[in-house]
Structure formats: C-alpha cells, structure tokens
Amino acid sequence: MAYAQDRLIHDADSHLMELPDCLDPFFDPKLLAKFHELPAYKHKNWRPEATARIRAPHADPEFRASAEENILLRKNYQAQGAFIKEDRPKALDTLGFASQLVFTTFCLNNFGLNQGKDMDLAYAAARAHNRMMMDFCAVDKRFLGTAIIPLEDFERSKKLTKEAIELGAKALLVPSKPPQKHSPSHIELDPVWAMAQERGIPILFHVGDEEKLNAAYFENGLPRVKDFHGGEENFTSVSFMPIPQAVMKTMAAFIIDGVCDRFPKLKFGAIELGASWVPGWMRFMDSAAGAFIKNEERLQKLSAKPSEIVKRQFRATPYPHEDVGWIIANSGEEVALFSSDYPHVEGGRNPLKRFDESLMGTDQRAINRFYSDNFINLM
User: Looking at residue 150, what is its pLDDT?
Assistant: First the structure.
C-alpha cells in the first residue's frame, strides 16, 4: 500500500537532485562557458568519478528492487527518481500523493546572479533551469514544474514569464529578497502577475534565496556549531532564524502596495520557509495598517485588513517539527499546506506521522484543507 494509504494528499514541496551538467543541454551556447566559470557552478562541478559514484547504485538491480521499501529512508541522490526522470513516477506511486510541486536543488538562488551585474547571464541561467525543469516534469502530469523568474529587469521578466508559461510551468518561483533597484511590488511588474493570474499559476517563494544571518553572529567566542547535515554550509539553530524575514517583507509589500488587490485571484506561497511566523506577521501587518492608515492612501484603498488578504491569497508550508495545529488555530485554516520535501533529508522519514500528531484535536475540515484543499486552492 502507498505511504499515503487512501488519503487525498497533494505535496507542495519536492525536489530534483540535479547533477552538475543538468543545465548544459538547455543553456544558451554563447553563454555556457561563462556560466561554467561561476564560483557557484564550480562548487557543484564534481569530478566525473564523483558523478559516476552517484549514478552507480541506480544501475544496480538489487538497489532498484528495494527502492519501494526505502522510499523515505534513502535521501538526496540515493532516492528513487532524484535525478532520473523515468524513475520519478514510480516514486510518486509509492508515496501515494496526488501531485507534487517540483523545485530545483542546484539552482534555487539562481547562482546568486540576481544580485549581480550580468543580467544576460542571470536570465539565461533562469531560462535554462526552466527548460530543464519542464523537460523533467513532462514525464508525468502529476509533476507540477516550477519556473524561476528573476525580477531585476522589467522587460526580461515579462518575456521570461511568457516563455515559462508556454513551456508548461505550473508555478513561478520569484526571489524572497527584493531586486537591487526597485520593489518587487513595482507596477512595471504587473504584467507578470497578470499573466500568472490569467493562467491560474501561483507565485512562490522558496528557501535558498532568503537573507542570510549576519556573519558576526557566528563569532561568539565558542566552538563553531555543526549544521543539520554535520557540516557548516546549512542552517544551525541561530542561522535558521532569518529564514522567513525576506518573504515577510516582500509579501507585505505585495499586500500593502496593492498587488494582491489588483490581482485578487492570484495566489502566493511560501515553500520550505516555515509557518510558525505567519500568525504574528499577520497581526503585525494589521497593526501597521491601523497605525498608518490616516496618512497612507494605499492603506485606505485596501480591500480588507492585511490578515484577511493573507487568508484569501497566501499559503505556507510548515516544517515537520512545527506545531501545525497551533499555526492553523492562530492563522486560520486557509493558510497551511502539507509538504514532504522529498527527497531531501530535512523532510524526515515519516512526515505524515509528525504532522498528524501535531494536528490531533484539530477540526477534520481544517485537516483536509492542510493535506489537499489549500493546495488545490493555491494551484
């Protein structure tokens, strides 16, 4: 029997585990060599023998035969369908989820290019990602591929959005951080949101492109703390704290500057950014609106309180270690989404068990919304 058993569950977060050459067939040939010189690319560009070691188990009949029984035990490159697209439908069959939003791992912050000066390369990298992702997800209609859309250059963003939608993108992934020279809520980006609304495609944020902890916090006079994976590149308990800060500000700008009201059917989602922050953020925006409404025409024109607009148009995925019942009780049953983070280690070995335990005592309608209905509304 599938992991989900007979429950209707949609998965708001799953990933590819791409190999270093994943973008090469899809990259503008004139810019490929320049892309390969990026420090962020070279960091991932393992030697051929390392890539061969990753591929080897997936060619072993015994390893492949035991994939189903290890569906949530094998993580990252060991997982079924992590990078071989023909294997991914079987993995989803075993999980039993009705659909999965699919995100990159390799390209999550667009290699840092959005905050640089070379916009030709920034948009070329995003375009190559989008083509690669749609190629992978074309293997099964249950896979909902996400397209990266930088917001730095108005005209390029419009063009890339149109192309991504034509390719079959089911969601647009935008940076949590603002562009270098304008707000993400700038009216020149309205055509991007209009195209998304017209096609019923949500705007998503994902961990990986958030504001990082100021390095000064690491210099505390104590031994350096290991991260979640035992290294020093990922989050620790303190560096974890800024994860939602950028999206809190960006989404507040979308609400207060009227983007949500100009596009009332457009949905937004914060994926793998946690959700315990959402209730306080909602109330803090309401407090800001109450404090400044006398002097700000934009606040006077809002269709509802910011917290009500959140319930109408914004969704978020809690981490498995968060108390989803508390989040729902304090933000409303419209907001929270289930996610597995397959095949990443952070998703855990039994996310349903952990979420079910935190939902004990929660109304069944709210539980159904968490596992499926809010995802359907988002999409």
Answer: 98
Note whether 76 and 17 are within 8 A (CB). Answer: yes
Task: Say what the pLDDT of residue 215 is.
Answer: 84
Has residue 362 got a pLDDT over 90? yes
Would you say 30 and 121 are in contact if contact means Cβ atoms under 8 Å apart?
no
What is d(CA 69, CA 92) in angstroms, rounded to the nearest whole number?
A: 13
What integer pLDDT is reported at residue 80 of this predicted model? 97
DSSP at 122: H
280 vs 243, 259, 261, 287, 331, CA distance in Å? 15, 22, 22, 10, 8
Say how far apart CA 187 and CA 76 lie, in whole Å.
Answer: 40
Mean pLDDT of the 348-364 span? 96
Could you give the strand order of the β-sheet that contains 268-271, starting from the edge strand earlier in sequence? 10-15, 99-103, 143-148, 171-173, 203-206, 268-271, 314-316
Sign of CA dihedral 216, 217, 222, 228: negative
Rg of the chain over all Cα atoms, to the nearest angstrom: 21
**pLDDT above 90 for 51:** no
Q: Where does residue 36 rank: exposed (0-12), middle (13-18), buried (19+ CB within 10 A)?
A: middle
Of 113, 77, 80, nearest in space to 94 by CA: 80
Average pLDDT over residues 21-36: 95
Q: Which residues contact 9 (CB under 8 A, 6 or more apart)?
A: 96, 97, 98, 338, 352, 371, 372
Task: Share the mean pLDDT of the chain.
Answer: 94
Dihedral sign (CA 198, 204, 209, 211): positive
Q: CA-to-CA distance for 168 and 144, rounded, in angstroms?
A: 9
Three-state DSSP class for residue 126: helix
pLDDT at residue 130 tops 70: yes
Distance CA 340, CA 13 (A): 6
Q: How far is CA 286 from the centre of its chain?
A: 26
Q: At CB < 8 A and 24+ separation, what contacts does 55-59 make? A: 58/84, 58/87
Average pLDDT of span 173-191? 97
Q: Around Cβ 44, how many Cβ atoms within 10 Å?
A: 16
What is the amino acid identity at position 65?
A
CA distances from 156 to 119, 121, 227 (A): 9, 12, 37
